[in-house]
Amino acid sequence: MESLVAARSPQQLINLRGFFRPVRQLQTPKQSREELFVPRSTLKHRRDLSTAAAYQPFPAGSTQAEQKRTMTTSPGVQQQMMYGSGNVDCTKSRIALRRALEVQDHLQHLAEQRAQQELLYALELRQQQIRQSMIPDVAGILPNAQPRTFTRETEVMPGQPSLQQPVTPEPRMHVGHVASLPQQALDAGVVLETTEEARRQSLLELACADLAPLSSSRDEESRAGSGAMAKLTSISTSPAHSTSALAGAQSRSAFSSAAAPLSNLQRTDLSSSSSSISTQQRRGPGKCAASAQQVPAVGDELVLECSSIAYGGQGVCKLPGGFTVFCERALPGERLRARVTAAKKGFAVARKLEALRQHSHAVEAPCQHFAEGCGGCSLQSLAYAAQLTAKRQQVVDALGRIGKAENPQDLVRPAIPCKQPFHYRNKMSFSLSAEQSCGGLSTGFGFKRIGDASSCLPVSSCHLQDETANQILQCLTAAAQNRSPTDDMPSLSLRGKDGMMGKPLVRRLTVRSGVHPDSGAPAHQAILHVSPDVAPPGKTDRAKQSKQGFDSMAKQDTLQRVAEMLMREVPGLAGVIQHREYNNARKRVDQLYTLAGSSVLQQRLCGLSFRMSPLAFFQTNSQQTEVLYRAVADAAGLSSKREQHLLDLYTGTGTIALSLAPQCKAVTGVESVRSAVADARANGKQNAIHHAHFVQADLSSADELQRIASVNPDVVVADPPRAGLGSSVIDYLRACSAHTFVYVSCDPATQARDVQKLCDAQQKGAFQLQFVQPVDMFPQTHHIETVALLQRSM
Ligand SMILES: C[S@@+](CC[C@H](N)C(=O)[O-])C[C@H]1O[C@@H](n2cnc3c(N)ncnc32)[C@H](O)[C@@H]1O
């Protein structure tokens, strides 16, 4: 039943595998039956919660003390309490629900504590051995294990000695890829030694990051297992040895036989052609014959040539036969060695290990976090001019492939560069990163790691934001790490009394920059996104009555002190806002509270000033937004005669509508977010623009589109979110009175799709695409903004 437990995070996996043992029978007063674990992280729906609540592990009438004893002495009960049982009566009351959840929390805490202690103990042991030079390089230890078995695989590089050459008995390194080991290997507590690449990562990082993919489903486990078998067969040319390796992968005791002396093994060149041979061996002749393409599997190492960059930032590489492999950070023209991390039906995803031949315009990335695997700027190692060429090509490819345009090269203009390719962003968001490692708990704020959405790399500064914004980041990081630059600095430490990780108070930090609403001087705003269990400040009196409420007040107090510290330490910080987000009856609720300073910032654009609420959308590159809006105005063909009625769909805080208003007879802006519409109206007033009107409507609803039925626009501008235009908007555009449509987009793929629909000559009211103008709003990243001009004769 163990494989039914699907851990959602490395930490949860540690809890599951490090502490609990599977319990095969669930004992209830009436019957005994097989248990079905429900991971706690999936207990988010009401029905699951009531399922967890209805489960009663204690005998009827037992006292609280008896229940507590049962909880702390019986792992079986603990596990059942933590994960609930999937097959129990769902009719018990809300009180039971609350109690079950409280107990769950308590047990989770106990479990984490014990699992972490075990883990730290194991790590300490290994470190000691390393210090005594017993083991030269250790990359990772599986968390639940005392070291028992060693595996070794040769890492084979293209150009190394030929196939038949014997291997030295003490190999320099071995492949440390936990995700591709079979489950049995994990059970056995395999100790992994480093590859050159893995050596850069910390002990725990590697183990945790690579364990995560194992945990999501039984299917993935078996795929991961087959990946390891592939690797074992690929390093052995002897059928007898292959068999023993496979058998070893299937049983714990036999697994060590896979670690046969390396002198018995023979090397295989892992260049793309030989990799296809090993794939063929693995799949069997029948399966390979069915497909003419070379289809790689997870764990395969390939040598690839990158032809272009796909939208999403990954390099596009083709295997012989045409199979596509997307590779993170691969650059066009580059030849590289990569390892497959996911294999899907029509494509695979790979992680770049090293460049064998670099892009001719490769440069050294200026940010230290680029080399550490920050997922933020995928193009930082490419010269800026080459970034522009690659981005334009992305737009051309999308227009040809998705938009079915016949001559996309002729339709797409060269991208307009950004004058300031670094430190240009007026808004950045950083997630809290907290990892338990052998050095203790390491915390910070950062971005997701490249190719791994579940893990976060803490950053000390970011090259895309300005110095003051970096100072805010560093101050909050110091508070999270309990490093005190001044004596009275409050701590946001996640460490509980026991030294283990507690619940984070601030989950995310957003820093915005603009100008101060009163002084007009450059100013910043810090938004602290807090955990939902921090009570809103107004409710403190009632909260005092319960322990939970009291804790919550203490947290609120800490936040207040952190806000004051930020205001003190960072000159130019205009305000600190607390944002609490939770779901109420499946609706997202956002609560904002000003902890210090001002609640809004202003932005200056095109000679106008705009109010910017903490959560309102605003273009993130203020300087380049003026360039973008100029391109929109040129495409719209407006003139100083003010003859046209402009309709601005998805208007946000009204920035496009108000910037173009001086050249229009009338302007109507449409937006679904109420606070953004309020900002847009206030912005109209504050800039004395009286012929602009703003309507709140959800443009995905055909009914709500009726609210603009009476507007007869001459020109329509739309700047939708990445998903593009909804079908109701496309129907509206075909039927409306406009002769010109200017489509601003931050996703060339959805824009190409919509343009094709709007230009479909079979339909009434079809437009013709005149050109697409890329504008680089996001240097160092793969993102690109585009302005497409569509026209029709009325
Ligand atoms: C990319 S932003 C553009 C904002 C604005 N044009 C600008 O340049 O700052 C997209 C805007 O569309 C709004 N939006 C998203 N879905 C919408 C919908 N279904 N109906 C109306 N507005 C929507 C968002 O709230 C956001 O303000």
UniProtKB/TrEMBL annotation:
The active site is at C746, C746 (nucleophile). Coiled coil: none annotated. It comes from the Eukaryota. Residues 266-285, 532-551 are annotated as: Disordered. GO terms for molecular function: RNA methyltransferase activity; S-adenosylmethionine-dependent methyltransferase activity. Residues 295-354 form the TRAM domain. Gene3D superfamilies: 2.40.50.1070, Nucleic acid-binding proteins (2.40.50.140), Vaccinia Virus protein VP39 (3.40.50.150). S-adenosyl-L-methionine binds at Q619, Y650, E671, D719. GO terms for biological process: methylation; RNA modification; RNA processing. InterPro entries: MeTrfase_TrmA_AS (IPR030390), MeTrfase_TrmA_CS (IPR030391), NA-bd_OB-fold (IPR012340), SAM-dependent_MTases_sf (IPR029063), TRAM_dom (IPR002792), U5_MeTrfase_fam (IPR010280). Keywords: Methyltransferase, S-adenosyl-L-methionine, Transferase. Belongs to the class I-like SAM-binding methyltransferase superfamily. RNA M5U methyltransferase family. This is TRAM domain-containing protein.
